[in-house]
Amino acid sequence: MLRHDRLILSRARRGLSRIAAMAERGCLWIAGVFTAYMLIVVAFNVVARMLFDATGAALNLMIPGAIEQASYALIVIVLAAIAASMRGGMITVDLFTGRLPRRGQRALTRVWYLVMVVFALVLARAFGGETATLLARGDVTQDLGMPLWTVYAVVTAETLALALVCLGHGLGAVAGDPAGPADDGKAGAAAYRDTLA
């Protein structure tokens, strides 16, 4: 039965690895789309503002609510980027961790990933609760009148993706993880890149 349990655990880890990789890819895609959108809105508004000033306010091509759009896009970008940035491991203080044996370093890395899972779940619960409250009240954004719950719903999904990505790394389910099986990092990193492709 022990062999059967190992097989099930191995399949579960592979499944978690695939799901975590998909969540990470999704976060990268969201961050890229919202970054491009924010850059277009800001750049267009800068040019439109110059035309507005040059024509003595006769030509107004500025996008309504551009600052609001850029602000909400930035929130979405930052949270998506956090989940996507977990791939290479978290930032560590080498002065401390470098003195630990390799096994201790992996254990500490796993602990930090699992702490991040808890943190992300706490954030997801808070943002999810706020999403429900805003939806029930019908709150809208100040300039555009866009339903505010939509922003919070996206942020809630991103924090859940962060929890999923960190769980995958924390359990060492993703090949090449700093918390994963001992290897030189090259084979595991290549395998992980293949899951992202």
TrEMBL record:
Membrane topology: Multi-pass membrane protein
GO molecular function per UniProt: transmembrane transporter activity
Keyword tags: Cell inner membrane, Cell membrane, Membrane, Transmembrane, Transmembrane helix, Transport
A single GO BP: C4-dicarboxylate transport
Ranges in a coiled coil: none
Spans through the membrane: 27-52, 72-90, 111-128, 148-167
All residue ranges annotated as the Tripartite ATP-independent periplasmic transporters DctQ component domain in the record: 38-169
Principal subcellular localization: membrane
Gene Ontology cellular component terms for the protein in this record: plasma membrane
Subcellular compartments: Cell inner membrane
Assembly with partners or alone: The complex comprises the extracytoplasmic solute receptor protein and the two transmembrane proteins.
Purpose of the protein: Part of the tripartite ATP-independent periplasmic (TRAP) transport system.
Family assignment from sequence similarity: Belongs to the TRAP transporter small permease family.
Name of the protein described by the UniProt record: TRAP transporter small permease protein
Source organism per UniProt: Mesobaculum littorinae
